[in-house]
Amino acid sequence: MVSHCILNSNSKVEGLSQYEGIFKEIVDIIYDKGIGVIQLPCPEMTMYGIKRWGHVKEQFDTLFFREACKEMLKPIIGQTKSYLDTGYEVVGVVGIDGSPSCGVNFTCSGDWEGDDSSKDDINHKIKDLKEVSSSGVFMEELKKYIEEYNISIPFVAINEKDVFSSLESIKNFLNK
């Protein structure tokens, strides 16, 4: 399973992608191993569309967003269970560290609430932005869903700040 934006960088917040279209280097690694792909939905694109601002985890950490993630994940869990029940191995989940939705090891956090009409308020919010050791909301919900069905799937992530630095760790992950 791979985060949506690995196969479609156009779903990312404008300006965040370090590659065009498909992250070819990751896809090549997966292809060379003969592994199939389940593309996870992009909850941010589904909920807010292409013309959205960057968010932090706290904005998505709501009952409404979490329930929407569960709905998006229902067919993914069904597919996964079907693969496993017929003898396939699900090698893992590749997330995007830094994402408030798809982070695995770390995500972005900050005080992004309220009115942003004041320049001082915007500067305060930007200065408050930080990286925290936590999964994004979508990955948290995926992990819960997987556990609910007693499925064991390891997670790995690409670092959103420097995607190309993650290539070796993805290769090592797939060689296990």
Write a structural description.
- This protein has helices at 4-7, 24-32, 43-48, 57-60, 63-85, 119-128, 137-148, 167-174; strands at residues 93-97, 107-109, 130-132, 155-159.
- The chain is mainly alpha-helical.
- It has one domain.
- The strands form two sheets. A two-stranded parallel ribbon has the order 1-4. Strands 2-3 form a two-stranded antiparallel ribbon.
- Helix 2 (24-32) packs parallel to helix 8 and helix 5 crosses helix 7 (137-148).
- It is globular and about 45 Å long.
- The model has no long low-confidence stretch (mean pLDDT 87).
The separation of the N and C termini measures 16 Å
Estimated helix fraction: 40-55%
Helix/strand order, N-terminal first: HHHHHEEHEHEH
Low-confidence stretches: none
Query: How many strands, what sense, and barrel or not for the largest sheet?
Result: 2 strands, parallel
Radius of gyration from the alpha-carbon trace, in angstroms:
17 Å
Number of helices: 8
Average pLDDT works out at: 87
Question: Would you tell me the structural class of the helices and strands?
Answer: mainly alpha
Strand order of the largest sheet: 1-4
Total strand segments: 4
Domains counted in the coordinates: how many? 1
Shape: globular
What percentage of amino acids are in beta strands? 5-15%
Write the layout of secondary structure elements.
Blueprint: H1 4-7, H2 24-32, H3 43-48, H4 57-60, H5 63-85, E1 93-97, E2 107-109, H6 119-128, E3 130-132, H7 137-148, E4 155-159, H8 167-174
Parallel strand pairs: 1-4
Antiparallel strand pairs: 2-3
